Amino acid sequence: MSEVRKEKDSLGFVEVPSRAYYGAQTARAVENYPISGLNAHTQLIRAFGMVKRAAAEANQELGLIDDRRAAAIIQAAQEVIDGKWDSEFVVDVFQAGAGVSFHMNTNEVIANRANEILGANLGDYTHVHPNDHVNYGQSTNDVFPTGMRLATLLNLETLYPVLDTLAATFAAKAKEFDGIMKSGRTHMQDAVPIRLGQEFAAYGFAIEKGKKFLQQASESLRELGLGGSAVGTGINTHPDYRVKAIANLARISGQHLVPAADMRWAMQSNACMAEVSAALRGIALEVIRISNDIRLLSSGPNTGFAEIYLPSLQPGSSIMPGKINPVMPELAAMVSFQIIGNDTAVAYAVQAGQLELNVMMPTMAHSVLQSITILANMLTQFNDRCVAGITVNAERCNFYAQSTVSLATALNPYIGYGKAAEIVKESVATGESIISIARKKKLLSDEQIAEILDPVRMTEPQYPLDAAKERDTKAKA
């Protein structure tokens, strides 16, 4: 058997690998765009399969494609949805504007498989043609925005549980560490005491908030311009096609999807992709901040903060024996940097549309889908191999809680800011503790000092000491 077959498109004949399910236009794209070696995200392939199935069902219902052809197209599209033909999607993620090449890759794979189902050879489009049948009533200009939005919604479903798990792990650590006192730090200087559990609870809350912002941002992805055809006017489509196709797509995908109020807007504007990318960037920024905190808190073991211990995952140096590095927080930061870079690419692409179409959609799709995937994969590892295994150096934490000069802050309501500042200066100059100096100066009784400068008392809002005693006396009476 020959290793290639010849197919003809509007530009002439093209050689295609004999067993390939793609065709001439895909083969041209492979030659034209050997850019990154990266092919379409599997969620984008699935989403396009869903769009093609939904369109075929609508066209069959409307009598625009006969039952025999439609059945073959629907079967072939379902096989794409099931991942059977992933290896046939060979166009680089950086390709012709608007994603024409990837769209035709989809049309050709489905057409060739449909023809095979109907008994024809690959490359023989007698029964089912990529443009005339698989693409009936469609254009890249409405299919790609639809597929890109749907793929993003589908991929986000893989990220949400990961965010929930990480938030829950931080919450569990917050409970575990709730009794551990330590010094807070602001401006990287000693601050008033805080419980380690309070720090970890805030980390979990940040992840929860990030998820909520992302879910809110994703809602605009559900408004689809499928049926807008070439410029959003619906040329070459049946008046009922749009509503039927989107209803079919909602059923097939399991996603809540609706026709956009304005088909031109849905084609011209990709602001929804910018919103989602920005929400992903927001999560990445929080992850960087949290991972940097964890690196600081675990720094040492002898010359750093050394308040917490991270799981030992691998040797940390090719020259320094016994060194262990915080590899998972480092990974978290690096992946998050990539997500921020992807967001920049999306932002430039979203603003680059002209008139009836934004042709920069392939880079939007690649960037957002990659961000979701690497964020989900990284956070899974960060959770399982780092956060879940964090333990505490309680002795070191307590030492810092007792040593912070900002203990003097609690004295402000009783002796005033100025006198408290004098105590701090003396403590820094002499190394003597805040409690010892306060007792020496006899500004308050030993009992008052012990109660006011109790670090545990400082970690929650409290009544002033006199007011608290008066309240307790009244309660007993």
SSE arrangement:
Elements: E1 4-9, E2 12-17, H1 24-32, H2 42-61, H3 67-81, H4 100-117, H5 130-134, H6 140-176, E3 181-186, E4 189-195, H7 196-218, E5 223-224, H8 241-253, E6 258-259, H9 263-268, H10 271-297, E7 308-309, H11 327-350, H12 361-385, E8 391-392, H13 394-403, H14 412-415, H15 417-430, H16 434-441, H17 446-452, H18 465-476
Parallel strand pairs: 5-6
Antiparallel strand pairs: 1-2, 3-4, 7-8
Helix pairs in contact: 1-4, 2-3, 2-4, 2-6, 2-8, 3-4, 6-7, 6-12, 7-10, 10-11, 10-12, 11-12
> The CATH topology of the largest domain, please?
Fumarase C, Chain A, domain 2
Strand content: 5-15%
Superfamily (CATH H level) name of the largest domain: Fumarase/aspartase (Central domain)
Give the fraction of residues assigned to helices.
55-70%
The structural domain count equals: 3
Radius of gyration: 31 Å
Q: What distance lies between the first and last C-alpha atoms, to the nearest angstrom? A: 101 Å
Stretches where pLDDT falls below 50 for ≥5 residues?
none
Q: Provide the CATH architecture of the largest domain.
A: Up-down Bundle
Strand arrangement across the biggest beta sheet: 1-2
Keywords:
single chain, 477 residues, mainly alpha, Fumarase C, Chain B, domain 1, Fumarase C, Chain A, domain 2, Ribonucleotide Reductase Protein R1, domain 1, 3 domains, two-stranded antiparallel ribbon, 8 strands, 58% helix, 7% strand
Written description of the protein model:
The structure is a single chain. With 477 residues, the chain is mainly α. The chain has 3 domains: 133 residues, Fumarase C, Chain B, domain 1, CATH 1.10.275; 253 residues, Fumarase C, Chain A, domain 2, CATH 1.20.200; 73 residues, Orthogonal Bundle (Ribonucleotide Reductase Protein R1, domain 1), CATH 1.10.40. The mean pLDDT is 95. The chain has a two-stranded antiparallel ribbon.
